[in-house]
Amino acid sequence: MAPQLHQRPPFRAEHLGSLLRPQQLLDAKTAQEKGEISEAKLAEVEAHEIKKIVDIQKKLGYGAPSDGEYCRHMFWGTFFPGLDGFEEVTEFDQDIFRPYAPDIAAFLEAGHKPGETVLCTGKIKHVGSTYVDQFKYLASLVPKDEVKNLKITLAAPNWYHLRYREGKAYPKEVYSSDEEYFGDIAKAYQAELKILYDAGCRNVQYDDPNLAYFCSEKFLNGFKEDSANVYSADDMFEKYIKLYNDCFINLPADMHVGVHLCRGNFVGSRHFSEGGYDRIAIKLFQELNVHTYYLEYDTERAGGFEPLKHLPTHKNVILGVVTSKFATMEDKEEMKKRVVNAAKIIAEGNNISLEAALNQVGVSPQCGFASHHEGNAIDWNGMINKLKLVREIANDVWPNQL
């Protein structure tokens, strides 16, 4: 039986999970870090602000509300530190990093040492979800028939592999190969997805700037010049595709999974890499077993829509044509034309009608508004205006569709 298009989720208007934190939440986090208030008091503030932001998302017409990642310091959250076999550290030799990995390079070029990281120190084992209670609270804020639409974002399974030099991602006495290491990572994600599923979660989005790094000539040149590497960049990309697919073994048929690719979204709206999807498109779209791709497309750094000709007819793409980095507003009519132009390429690639291709498409901001808890160079009203614009574009292109 041919694969089926999985929708609702995703919806015609989407956002990427992280939303600006209100000042009172930022103040509470700072106070808790200073020991001025308890963790319990911070949790009360978080719960209050999450309820408010869910209500705002619903009023704006978004079918897949998130908790804004309000309990997180960074977008990748606490999955890896919550596993046996990983340890969050602040003291480390910076030579463990690939200096050409775009986010690492940005720190080093600015004269900064990465402030924290998570290292594999032993056998990896899932010992309980650090997200499930957050999801359960989010689920308590919506009617039961809407719980299946709620979005939770997860860190990329390759997150603490690509950044490290060959041989530095795990101790050789613990894992003899990437395949063995990846095997336990995949098992950990399988366990996480089952726990979330049992709690009612049906909509997961993986956030993965790493995959977009394989579009960067600067990164690819650095990878090629690194004599320690035993694989080519293309080989590594294929390994990451397999890692993802192994994470999805036994995935229930009614659970929607997507992956978001961007080129960085750090404090001050900084990006880390550039390059179109062309060189990874076939493997990304045809071999990665996700239902939906959430793709950055707000500037020329992401290239053109041509790679979408490789998108199969049973998969969705959410076009991030509206920037979340700055408050300057896009022209709605121009964005609608861009959406249609992207659909035309999908239609031509699959020899289907424009109408059929548009059915595979949605629209969103290109990334979150606060991948880091401090947020992008955009204020609250700017974020709301962007979310309204995305909803208006969707309303015009797909009338009467959530």
TrEMBL record:
Cited InterPro entries: Met_Synth_C/arc (IPR002629), UROD/MetE-like_sf (IPR038071)
MF terms (GO), sorted A to Z: 5-methyltetrahydropteroyltriglutamate-homocysteine S-methyltransferase activity; zinc ion binding
SUPFAM superfamilies for this protein: UROD/MetE-like
Domain Cobalamin-independent methionine synthase MetE C-terminal/archaeal: 180-394
CDD domains: CIMS_C_terminal_like
Pfam families from the UniProt entry: Meth_synt_2
Domain of life: Eukaryota
GO biological process: methionine biosynthetic process
Protein name, as recorded: Cobalamin-independent methionine synthase MetE C-terminal/archaeal domain-containing protein
